[in-house]
């Protein structure tokens, strides 16, 4: 059945987002982290639903910031994908791809010139997804996550 996507709409979405992120991502986040992203950049966060599910099966949380470039001595608007999670039962259906595309399009409308993120170095499905969207492995970050795992910055 078709998957529907919508923007984050406010505090009633928060428990569902927290639950989905906590069940699928290794990094623990406190409620203040979610509120930091969601209250300042609600237009960059999307949720995915099936017709049968009252709770989201996928979510992306992002932000934007001004980045100073040391090479050009100018500022640019940079996007950041903070969290992406799709319920294990619904993976391999293009949901993560669509969530990232939706956020990328919203960031483009805001004039974002570059988007960054980190993912665990051994998360082959995530690396494959992001590389299919044009992301490039920029740097390996050793012991980046609290669980001791390395990450790639893309």
From TrEMBL:
Recorded family membership: Belongs to the acetyltransferase family. MAK3 subfamily.
Domain N-acetyltransferase positions: 3-154
Annotated TM spans: none
Name of the protein this chain belongs to: Acyl-CoA N-acyltransferase
PROSITE patterns referenced in this protein's UniProt entry, alphabetically: GNAT
Keywords: Acyltransferase, Transferase
InterPro entries assigned to the protein according to its UniProt record, in alphabetical order: Acyl_CoA_acyltransferase, GNAT_dom, NAA30-like
Domain of life: Eukaryota
Key word Manganese present: no
Species: Lentinula boryana
């Amino acid at each position: 059945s078709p998957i529907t996507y919508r923007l984050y709409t406010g505090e009633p979405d928060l428990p569902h987002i927290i639950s989905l992120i906590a069940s699928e991502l290794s990094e623990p986040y406190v409620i203040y982290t979610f509120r930091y992203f969601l209250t300042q950049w609600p237009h960059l966060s999307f949720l995915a639903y099936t017709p049968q599910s009252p709770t989201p099966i996928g979510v992306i949380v992002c932000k934007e910031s001004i980045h100073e470039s040391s090479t050009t001595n100018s500022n640019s608007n940079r996007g950041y994908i903070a969290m992406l999670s799709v319920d294990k039962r619904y993976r391999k259906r293009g949901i993560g791809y669509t969530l990232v595309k939706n956020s990328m399009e919203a960031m483009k409308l805001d004039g974002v010139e570059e988007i960054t993120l980190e993912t665990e170095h051994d998360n082959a499905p995530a690396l494959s997804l992001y590389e299919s969207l044009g992301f490039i492995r920029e740097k390996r970050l050793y012991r980046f996550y609290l669980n001791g795992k390395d990450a790639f910055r893309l």
